[in-house]
UniProtKB/TrEMBL annotation:
UniProtKB keywords: DNA integration, DNA-binding, Endonuclease, Hydrolase, Metal-binding, Nuclease, Nucleotidyltransferase, RNA-directed DNA polymerase, Transferase, Zinc, Zinc-finger
EC number of this enzyme: 2.7.7.49
Domain Integrase catalytic stretches: 32-114
Protein name in UniProt: RNA-directed DNA polymerase
Feature: DNA-binding region: 124-164
Top-level taxonomic group: Eukaryota
Record-annotated Integrase-type domain positions: 1-24, 124-164
SUPFAM superfamilies, sorted: DNA-binding domain of retroviral integrase, N-terminal Zn binding domain of HIV integrase, Ribonuclease H-like
Record carries keyword Membrane: no
GO annotation terms (biological process): DNA integration
GO molecular function, one term: zinc ion binding
Pfam families registered for this protein in UniProt: IN_DBD_C, Integrase_Zn, rve
Protein's organism: Hirundo rustica rustica
Length: 209
């Protein structure tokens, strides 16, 4: 992304990413106990930020690395606050998918409640229409949506699809609604049975008199 955004050569973009100490270290074998690695893709990511003065206002380059595959995503931002971290992560999610865990330092941006909430918040569930079978599949996690397209985390990747092929997964809500309606019916029937029993009891008392 940096290469396209700032018209850099591949070598220049690689040098910028390698200037990030933590992320560069993941490119070589590490002694046990220094930096944990994932055992599969999307298991553990590591994120850090470096500064590139010649980028001007966008001098804060955030870099995320998949510790298993060493795949990297770098994006330039105007700062290193929580909102910049979140914007970077969402770009990476849209390209690679959603990781199981993210490793960061204890910087204020990463430790902030806002960044933590974004990392752990549940993703909206959606269903996707298969353009070949014409069947709706899912549910899957919705990563991003805008300009007529949606990015969805599926079992095979994170494709961008036309919004018309994506719809909310309403089955949990419908099930909850059905459960609530069923509970209301049970309460009503129980109330009717109780009233009927009370009526029979009153009749029995009258007959005894």
């Amino acid at each position: 992304m940096l290469q396209k955004q700032f018209q850099l050569t591949a070598t220049e973009a690689r040098e910028i990413v390698e200037s990030c100490d933590d992320c560069h270290a993941l490119g070589a074998p590490l002694p046990a106990g220094v930096n944990p690695r994932g055992l599969k893709a999307l298991e553990l990511w590591q994120t850090d930020v470096t500064q590139v003065a010649k980028f001007g206002r966008l001098k804060y380059v955030h870099v995320t690395v998949d510790t298993f595959s060493s795949a990297m995503w770098a994006s330039a931002h105007t700062g290193e606050k929580a909102r910049d971290v979140i914007a970077h992560w969402r770009q990476a999610f849209a390209v690679f998918g959603i990781p199981s865990a993210l490793k960061t330092d204890n910087g204020p941006a990463y430790a902030s409640q806002k960044a933590s909430d974004d990392r752990h918040q549940p993703r909206a569930k959606v269903r996707v229409r298969n353009l070949v079978t014409k069947q709706w599949e899912g549910p899957y996690d919705l990563i991003a949506m805008g300009r007529g397209y949606a990015c969805v985390s599926t079992d095979t990747g994170t494709p961008w699809l036309p919004s018309k092929c994506v719809c909310p997964d309403l089955r949990p809500q419908r099930q909850n609604s059905a459960d609530r309606q069923g509970g209301s019916r049970d309460q009503l029937e129980g109330h009717q049975v109780a009233e009927s029993s009370s009526d029979h009891s009153d009749d029995s008392s009258t007959d005894s008199d």
